[in-house]
Write a structure and sequence with these properties.
Length: 175
Amino acid sequence: AVTLLVDNHCHQNKASGIGFDSCATGRSTVINNRVIDNATVAVGIKSGWTVRLFGNELSRGKGLPPVTMVYDGADATFVDNIIRGEGVAGIRVAGKILAFNNKITGTSLRRSGPPNNAIWALQGSAVTMTANRIHGWRHGLQATNATVNANNNTVSNFYRSAFVMQESTQPANIH
Protein backbone atom coordinates (compact mmCIF):
# COMPACT_ATOMS: atom_id res chain seq x y z
CA ALA A 1 0.00 0.00 0.00
CA VAL A 2 1.05 3.57 -0.66
CA THR A 3 -0.98 6.36 0.96
CA LEU A 4 -0.93 10.14 1.31
CA LEU A 5 -2.93 11.71 4.17
CA VAL A 6 -3.08 15.53 4.08
CA ASP A 7 -5.06 18.10 6.11
CA ASN A 8 -7.43 15.68 7.87
CA HIS A 9 -9.00 16.13 11.30
CA CYS A 10 -9.39 12.79 13.12
CA HIS A 11 -10.90 13.14 16.58
CA GLN A 12 -12.89 11.28 19.24
CA ASN A 13 -12.70 7.87 17.55
CA LYS A 14 -13.25 4.72 19.63
CA ALA A 15 -9.77 3.39 18.69
CA SER A 16 -6.77 5.11 17.09
CA GLY A 17 -7.03 8.29 15.06
CA ILE A 18 -4.82 6.89 12.28
CA GLY A 19 -3.87 3.21 12.29
CA PHE A 20 -1.52 1.39 9.95
CA ASP A 21 -2.26 -2.35 10.27
CA SER A 22 0.48 -4.93 9.66
CA CYS A 23 1.37 -5.55 6.01
CA ALA A 24 4.22 -6.91 3.89
CA THR A 25 5.31 -3.43 2.73
CA GLY A 26 3.52 -0.13 3.02
CA ARG A 27 4.53 3.50 2.66
CA SER A 28 2.65 6.54 3.82
CA THR A 29 3.19 10.27 4.06
CA VAL A 30 1.11 12.05 6.71
CA ILE A 31 1.13 15.87 6.41
CA ASN A 32 -0.61 18.66 8.38
CA ASN A 33 -3.25 16.50 10.07
CA ARG A 34 -4.94 17.14 13.42
CA VAL A 35 -5.29 13.82 15.25
CA ILE A 36 -6.66 14.53 18.72
CA ASP A 37 -8.60 12.94 21.58
CA ASN A 38 -8.95 9.40 20.24
CA ALA A 39 -9.53 6.46 22.61
CA THR A 40 -6.19 4.70 22.10
CA VAL A 41 -3.27 6.23 20.20
CA ALA A 42 -3.30 9.22 17.87
CA VAL A 43 -1.19 7.20 15.40
CA GLY A 44 -0.31 3.50 15.54
CA ILE A 45 2.17 2.06 13.01
CA LYS A 46 2.49 -1.73 12.81
CA SER A 47 5.08 -3.92 11.09
CA GLY A 48 5.78 -3.54 7.39
CA TRP A 49 5.11 0.21 7.27
CA THR A 50 7.45 3.10 6.54
CA VAL A 51 5.62 6.27 7.56
CA ARG A 52 6.75 9.89 7.31
CA LEU A 53 4.85 12.37 9.50
CA PHE A 54 5.36 16.10 8.82
CA GLY A 55 3.73 19.09 10.55
CA ASN A 56 0.95 17.20 12.34
CA GLU A 57 -0.76 17.88 15.67
CA LEU A 58 -0.95 14.54 17.49
CA SER A 59 -2.50 14.49 20.94
CA ARG A 60 -4.57 12.43 23.31
CA GLY A 61 -6.07 13.15 26.70
CA LYS A 62 -6.29 11.08 29.84
CA GLY A 63 -5.26 7.46 30.15
CA LEU A 64 -2.16 5.33 29.71
CA PRO A 65 -1.86 4.67 25.96
CA PRO A 66 1.04 6.48 24.29
CA VAL A 67 0.28 9.35 21.94
CA THR A 68 1.98 7.42 19.11
CA MET A 69 3.17 3.81 18.83
CA VAL A 70 5.72 2.45 16.35
CA TYR A 71 5.70 -1.36 16.50
CA ASP A 72 8.50 -3.82 15.85
CA GLY A 73 9.14 -4.04 12.11
CA ALA A 74 7.89 -0.49 11.43
CA ASP A 75 9.93 2.59 10.50
CA ALA A 76 8.69 6.13 11.20
CA THR A 77 10.06 9.62 10.65
CA PHE A 78 8.59 12.46 12.73
CA VAL A 79 9.46 15.99 11.52
CA ASP A 80 8.04 19.31 12.81
CA ASN A 81 5.11 17.71 14.68
CA ILE A 82 3.41 18.75 17.90
CA ILE A 83 3.02 15.64 20.07
CA ARG A 84 1.09 16.19 23.30
CA GLY A 85 -0.42 13.96 25.97
CA GLU A 86 -0.12 12.28 29.34
CA GLY A 87 0.11 8.55 28.60
CA VAL A 88 3.13 6.30 29.04
CA ALA A 89 4.94 8.07 26.16
CA GLY A 90 4.74 10.70 23.46
CA ILE A 91 6.37 8.19 21.10
CA ARG A 92 6.63 4.55 22.17
CA VAL A 93 8.87 2.65 19.82
CA ALA A 94 9.69 -1.02 19.29
CA GLY A 95 10.76 -0.47 15.66
CA LYS A 96 12.86 2.35 14.23
CA ILE A 97 12.28 6.13 14.42
CA LEU A 98 13.89 9.36 13.36
CA ALA A 99 12.49 12.32 15.33
CA PHE A 100 13.61 15.77 14.12
CA ASN A 101 12.48 19.20 15.32
CA ASN A 102 9.32 18.04 17.10
CA LYS A 103 7.69 19.62 20.14
CA ILE A 104 6.86 16.76 22.54
CA THR A 105 4.87 18.06 25.51
CA GLY A 106 3.62 16.09 28.49
CA THR A 107 0.38 17.40 29.98
CA SER A 108 0.65 15.68 33.39
CA LEU A 109 4.14 14.98 34.78
CA ARG A 110 4.01 11.74 36.79
CA ARG A 111 6.82 11.40 39.33
CA SER A 112 5.94 7.76 40.06
CA GLY A 113 3.71 4.99 38.82
CA PRO A 114 3.41 4.00 35.16
CA PRO A 115 6.08 5.21 32.71
CA ASN A 116 5.91 8.83 31.55
CA ASN A 117 8.51 9.35 28.80
CA ALA A 118 8.61 11.69 25.82
CA ILE A 119 10.25 8.84 23.87
CA TRP A 120 10.21 5.29 25.22
CA ALA A 121 12.55 2.99 23.30
CA LEU A 122 11.80 -0.69 23.88
CA GLN A 123 14.15 -3.65 23.49
CA GLY A 124 15.58 -3.95 19.97
CA SER A 125 14.40 -0.52 18.82
CA ALA A 126 16.50 2.15 17.12
CA VAL A 127 16.03 5.85 17.92
CA THR A 128 17.60 8.88 16.29
CA MET A 129 16.39 12.12 17.83
CA THR A 130 17.70 15.55 16.84
CA ALA A 131 16.66 19.12 17.74
CA ASN A 132 13.44 18.17 19.55
CA ARG A 133 11.93 20.34 22.30
CA ILE A 134 10.70 18.13 25.13
CA HIS A 135 8.80 19.47 28.14
CA GLY A 136 6.84 18.01 31.04
CA TRP A 137 7.73 14.29 30.97
CA ARG A 138 9.42 12.19 33.66
CA HIS A 139 12.20 11.44 31.15
CA GLY A 140 12.94 12.90 27.73
CA LEU A 141 14.10 9.46 26.60
CA GLN A 142 14.05 6.08 28.32
CA ALA A 143 15.72 3.26 26.39
CA THR A 144 16.35 -0.38 27.29
CA ASN A 145 18.45 -2.63 25.02
CA ALA A 146 18.05 -0.08 22.22
CA THR A 147 20.27 1.77 19.76
CA VAL A 148 20.21 5.52 20.49
CA ASN A 149 21.59 8.61 18.78
CA ALA A 150 20.41 11.83 20.45
CA ASN A 151 21.79 15.22 19.45
CA ASN A 152 20.85 18.85 20.12
CA ASN A 153 17.61 18.12 22.01
CA THR A 154 16.23 20.41 24.71
CA VAL A 155 14.57 18.70 27.70
CA SER A 156 12.91 20.84 30.37
CA ASN A 157 10.61 20.35 33.36
CA PHE A 158 11.47 16.67 33.73
CA TYR A 159 11.74 14.52 36.84
CA ARG A 160 14.87 12.52 37.68
CA SER A 161 16.98 12.22 34.50
CA ALA A 162 16.48 13.71 31.04
CA PHE A 163 17.95 10.60 29.36
CA VAL A 164 17.85 7.09 30.84
CA MET A 165 19.82 4.36 29.09
CA GLN A 166 19.64 0.78 30.38
CA GLU A 167 21.48 -2.29 29.13
CA SER A 168 22.50 -0.66 25.83
CA THR A 169 23.28 -3.04 22.99
CA GLN A 170 25.98 -0.59 21.83
CA PRO A 171 27.33 2.70 23.14
CA ALA A 172 24.68 5.44 23.05
CA ASN A 173 25.56 8.64 21.20
CA ILE A 174 24.14 11.58 23.20
CA HIS A 175 25.38 15.13 22.53
